[in-house]
Design goal:
Blueprint: H1 15-31, E1 37-40, E2 57-60
Antiparallel strand pairs: 1-2
């Protein structure tokens, strides 16, 4: 385990771990039978981050609009 509070705090050596995080998100989407989904990573309070460890929100199961809001 590595403590990474947000994307801005990542180091080059965290790249494999973050890639694994995205791969696991893809696996969860497949398990939930989501062919279309959105991944969200907030970086900092101003972006809506309230839990300060790097994590991914997997959104799916409905149509996504753009821009998000």
């Amino acid at each position: 385990k590595v403590a990474i509070a947000k994307v801005a705090d990542m180091k080059k050596e965290d790249s494999d771990l973050v890639g694994h995080l995205l791969f696991v998100a893809r696996e969860v989407a497949a398990k939930e039978q989501l062919s279309d989904f959105r991944l969200v990573v907030n970086n900092g309070s101003g972006a809506g981050q309230t839990v300060f460890h790097l994590h991914v929100h997997l959104l799916g199961g409905r149509a996504m609009t753009w821009p998000p809001g």
